[in-house]
Amino acid sequence: MLAVPPVSYAGTERMVGVLVDELCARGHQVTLFASGDSTADCELVPVVPRSLWSIGYTGDVGPFIEIALAKVWQQHDRFDVIHSHVETPGFLFARHCPTPVVSTLHGRLDTNGTPELMAEFTDIPLVAISDSQGRFMPDNNWMATIYHGLDLEPAPWRREPGNYLVLVGRVTPEKGVAEAIELARRAGMPLKVIAKVYDAAEHDHFEAVVQPAINEGIVEFLGELGPQARDPIVAGARATVMLGAWPEPFGLVAIESMATGTPLIARRAGALTETIEHGVDGYLVDDLDEAVLALAKITELDRAEIRRRALERFSKSRMVDEYEAVYARLLGLDERGNVSRDRALAALGSSGK
What is the pLDDT of residues 288-321, one digit of tens each? Predict the structure, then answer.
């Protein structure tokens, strides 16, 4: 759907781009199956000539995911490990592919038949991006929980914030757009909205919720911005607001905000309860009244400490260290990269010769 790395804001494609670049830097040979306009510095097998959303495609992406899986299957014996980021459509492939496959899941797992699917595929190796994401599926084959990591060091930061709030994401109800606007209204503080509006539902939500707030003078809508334009705005905010009630599987916005030193006012839900330490990195709230209180206390937090903790906890090197450990386990290697005794005995047969 999007190039790797993406030209503008995206989640999964950004993480795949970071992972590919760091693995290559460590000497791994990496092949990426993605859209032909991807620019990651590795061998690229194009699934489609150009990313679907860049050419205005709004239809079902399922057939193109099947094409991706078919192309990987044709070449599976070239690889030691295959790392899938295509969510649950890759489960059957992961079960039957002769090459070890590990799947990182990036979305929520509690709706639309996914619990039943997870119950069927308890054998395939999985990675969660937060403990919250997989907490209802303890019987699945979780290799690890690996928090996302980014190159956060270049992020700008300010010790003294400006007098506005910021929201980054998509214009959808689950992102808490209406709640963020109401918090800004109650606080008498402007809200800068950096968000994408793609599909019809997002356009409808924009017209119903965002446009009236723009007319009222509460919201400054900036659209979708890349990191160079976005990060200085986030760095200058009094707080980043994440009041959506849905259980974020991870929430890249949170760690990027913390890297700029800007604290969070976030709903106490999903992975945000793991990435944000209440009273240190921001405040976790249950409703708008608590959000108003959190905003009144937000300047008590140490923005330099917020940034320091983010750089330490969510570095790309830490993330890739943990993925390398998962790959090694899939291959039966020990911590030194040697074939483990159990794996060697299994390969030789029960006689142990």
Answer: 999 999 999 999 999 999 999 999 999 999 999 9
C-alpha angle 60/76/16, rounded to 5°? 55
Question: For the chain, which residues make up each domain, given as ranges?
Answer: 12-150+317-348, 165-312
Residue 241 is inside which H or E element, if any?
Answer: strand 239-242
From CA 176, how far away is CA 182, in angstroms rounded?
10
Backbone angles phi, psi at 219, to 5 degrees: -105, 135
HSE, side-chain direction, 13 A CA sphere, residue 133: 23
CA–CA gap between residue 245 and residue 174 (Å, rounded): 6
Distance CA(245)–CA(252), nearest Å, equals 16
Q: What is the rounded distance in angstroms from the CA atom of residue 318 to the CA atom of residue 308? A: 15
Contact 207, 178 (CB under 8 A): no
Q: What is the CATH number of domain 12-150+317-348?
A: 3.40.50.2000
Please give the full DSSP string across 137-156, using - where no structure is assigned: -TTSEEEEE----B--TT--
The pTM score is 0.90
User: Would 12-150+317-348 and 165-312 be classified into the same CATH topology?
Assistant: yes
Q: Distance between CA atoms of 105 and 90, rounded to whole angstroms? A: 10
Rounded to the nearest 5 degrees, what angle is found at the Cα of 39, between the Cα atoms of 37 and 40? 135
Note the pLDDT tens digit of each residue in 41-83. Answer: 999 999 999 999 889 888 899 999 999 999 999 999 999 999 9
